UniProtKB/TrEMBL annotation:
Top-level taxon in the UniProt lineage: Bacteria
InterPro entries, per database record: CHAT_dom (IPR024983), TPR-like_helical_dom_sf (IPR011990)
SUPFAM superfamilies: TPR-like (SSF48452)
Domain CHAT stretches: 373-708
Protein name in UniProt: CHAT domain-containing protein
Organism: Alterirhizorhabdus solaris
Length: 717
């Protein structure tokens, strides 16, 4: 280059930290040649071939392919190419798996330790390093080295929680850890703290997807929460880059004085960046939009502090086919593997749901509830803590697996009433099989609420109450539409491959009656309660509404659309509204909900199946488990992010007969001021349980309180 000119080679040296790279033997001044790239691709192909052969049981063939892959990777610039470090580590892990399967345990352990060492140098505190350590811990556990395995697993979990990043799909690597802990907890009760913290790192794929969607919404905003969120993301990246550079400097066998000085500077910079991150996240924690997407774990001690006397937190964790439970009170905690696997749980929940509400020939049908299975499920999930529940008045339930779509309050606590029911219907062919009076449901004497996570529960409990001056805003009874309105709508999602992915007009032409809304308004009083229905209840009107944050309670009585309109279409979970003009699609999507600005203590979603079963695609976007589940996390998390503290959602289409739903809503708002949501709902449910015609769970168990059930319904009347 000409004097003073910086060409491509010089720029590469300036941007890559030449002194450090030269000491490591890495040359970044010349990009990888075509031959080197081809060698890396060939090595990757060999690594995949070796993995496939191992899975097929061809261990000699796998060993040959993997040895060749590693040799080719190391041959590229003597293995000193950072970009292939992860591939080298993966190849070492595969070689270890072959060695273990060949009963060469010393070689297997050595290869796993090489993989860890390689990643510690190049990618410290990374997900790849945590995965490598978890593989080594799993190997140690299989070899009977329980304590070293537990120590290493704990190191992995500590690193994951410190980074604030839950890892989707990591449960396979941590599955042996949970199994080890569950076996050790009876003799070492203190290990329940490690069990709980490990469970906090698990993020269901659907939840991760919802959080990613909402995080993009937050990142693209222009308010203070969005600015702080972008700042936090940038700080995280800066910290990771600095740690990588610091680790490489620390690996130098004989650093020069300049390199020692640089290392000290980086250490100081990391400390300052970490302090900035703590301060930034503390400020972010004040915004509900951030709390709704935060993956930061909390400790068991923190959860205990949030619980009050007479309260308990029950958490399920589905890991493979194993289902674990954690039970926490202010002064006690335990964890155990439940008596049912995740696949068996799916079948049992399906069977129970089919006796509650199922569609046959386009009509909802209810069958006699299977109390025998409900009792069996209670015993499978809660037998180890059955005696402890006797002193619990308020139970926070964090579901997982199939229990995401079944309210826990309909589980049966005692056997005698079940026996009496079965004996009665067996003895008399004309006996009323829908009469479940006398059954001791879990929700009969205990206020049961649902929690999205332990942190979400703690955050809601610690959040300042709403400062909204008005009590209630009811929204629903959309206006039926004509084909002309649909044709002029422009906000619907584009069709894919010519397929019409709009919901059919029939969805809008069967609005839910405004009876619940009018009942609530009459109970609370028109001076403090407002109801919006018909044409005024449109998505565009709501998005433009300037005073939504002026109401403590928002009540939506409308259809919840959580599945795709057709199997080949993408799912767009939403609440159905009236059409509101050219820019309206008649839907309030969970992304639009997240962008609302609310100050509500309670959001009521008495919509059809807003917490019920949906398609796989719907559950991924709505934020729940893969393979079916519900829309609970998505819509609820969006409302919490918008500024709602607690959400009352329905598990199935609410009944119209016997005035059951109206009586529940009326009872909710007729409760004296200061009565908690959980207590008010349970009081209404108890009334329905006590009457033969409404004692079936279909009539009283549909609502789920998501958040803090101890919050008051009304402050004043």
């Amino acid at each position: 280059p000409a004097p003073g000119e910086i060409d491509a080679t010089a720029a590469a040296e300036l941007n890559s930290g030449v002194p450090l790279n030269r000491r490591l033997g890495v040359s970044e001044t010349v990009a990888l040649t075509q031959g080197e790239k081809a060698t890396i691709l060939d090595a990757q192909a060999l690594q995949l071939k070796g993995t496939a052969l191992r899975l097929q049981g061809d261990l000699p063939g796998a060993r040959t392919a993997l040895d060749a892959a590693l040799a080719q990777l190391v041959a590229v610039r003597e293995g000193r190419v950072s970009s292939i470090t992860r591939l080298r580590a993966q190849t070492l892990a595969e070689q270890a798996a072959v060695a273990e399967a060949s009963n060469d345990q010393p070689r297997a352990e050595g290869l796993l330790r090489q993989s860890v060492l390689l990643l510690e140098t190049e990618y410290p505190q990374s997900a790849a390093l945590n995965a490598a350590k978890a593989r080594l811990a799993g190997f140690l556990g299989r070899r009977g080295q329980v304590q070293p395995a537990l120590t290493l697993y704990k190191e992995v979990v500590t690193a994951m929680t410190a980074s604030g990043a839950g890892t989707t799909g990591f449960e396979n690597l941590l599955a042996p850890y949970f199994a080890l802990l569950a076996r050790q907890i009876p003799s070492q009760p203190a290990l329940v703290e490690d069990f709980f913290l490990a469970s906090e790192t698990l993020v269901r794929p659907g939840v991760a997807n919802t959080q990613a969607v909402l995080a993009r919404e937050l990142s693209g905003g222009s308010d203070e929460a969005s600015r702080l969120f972008r700042q936090s993301v940038n700080l995280t990246r800066d910290i990771e880059r600095s740690r990588i550079e610091y680790a490489r400097l620390a690996a130098l066998p004989a650093p020069t004085p300049d390199e020692q000085q640089r290392s000290a500077q980086i250490a100081t910079a990391i400390e300052a960046l970490a302090a900035d991150q703590v301060a930034t996240q503390a400020r972010l924690g004040q915004f509900p939009r951030y709390r709704a997407i935060s993956t930061q774990a909390m400790t068991l001690a923190d959860l205990r502090k949030a619980l009050r006397p007479g309260e308990a937190y029950y958490k399920l964790a589905a890991i493979g086919d194993a289902l674990y439970a954690i039970f926490v009170t202010p002064d006690d905690a335990t964890a155990y593997r439940t008596g049912i696997g995740t696949k068996a749980l799916e079948r049992k929940v399906d069977a129970l749901r089919d006796t509650i509400s199922i569609v046959e020939n386009d009509q909802p049908v209810t069958y006699p509830f299977d109390v025998k299975q409900a009792r069996e499920l209670y015993m499978a999930l809660m037998q180890p803590i059955d005696a402890k529940l006797a002193t619990v008045k308020n139970l926070m339930f964090e579901p997982d697996g199939a229990m995401l779509r079944l309210p826990a309050n309909l589980l049966v606590m005692e056997q005698p009433a079940v026996d009496a029911y079965l004996k009665r219907i067996a003895a008399d062919p004309k006996a009323d099989t829908f009469d479940f009076r006398g059954i001791h449901w879990l929700g009969r004497d205990i206020d049961v609420s649902t929690s999205l996570s332990a942190r979400a529960f703690r955050d809601v409990r610690n959040a300042a109450p709403s400062a909204a001056p008005r009590e209630y805003l009811g929204l629903g009874h959309n206006q039926p539409v004509s084909p002309l309105v649909q044709l002029t709508s422009t906000r619907s999602a584009p069709t894919r491959g010519g397929i019409d992915c709009d919901w059919p007009l029939a969805a809008w032409n069967n609005p839910i009656a405004a009876t619940e809304l009018n009942t609530a308004q009459s109970v609370i009083g028109r001076n403090s309660a407002r109801v919006i229905t018909g044409a005024a209840f449109s998505d565009t009107a709501l998005l433009a509404q300037p005073d939504l944050n002026q109401y403590r309670i928002l009540h939506f009585a409308t259809h919840g659309l959580v599945t795709a309109p057709r199997p080949e279409c993408p799912a767009r979970p939403a609440l159905l509204t009236s059409f509101g003009g050219p820019k309206s699609d008649g839907l309030l999507t969970f992304r639009e909900i997240y962008d609302l600005r609310l100050d509500a203590d309670i959001v009521i979603l008495s919509a059809c199946d807003t917490a019920g079963k949906a398609t796989v695609a719907a559950t991924r976007e709505a934020g729940v488990t893969v393979g079916g589940g519900d829309a609970l996390d998505g819509l609820v998390r969006a409302f919490i992010g918008a500024g709602g503290r607690s959400v009352l959602a329905s598990h199935w289409p609410l009944p119209d007969d016997y005035g059951a739903t109206e009586r529940l809503i009326s009872g909710l708002f007729n409760a004296k001021p200061g009565t908690s949501i959980g207590e008010a709902i349970r009081a209404g449910q108890d009334v329905l349980m006590a009457k033969a015609e409404t004692s079936h769970p279909y009539y009283w168990a549909g609502f789920a309180i998501v958040g803090d059930g101890a919050q008051p319904v009304l402050k004043q009347r």
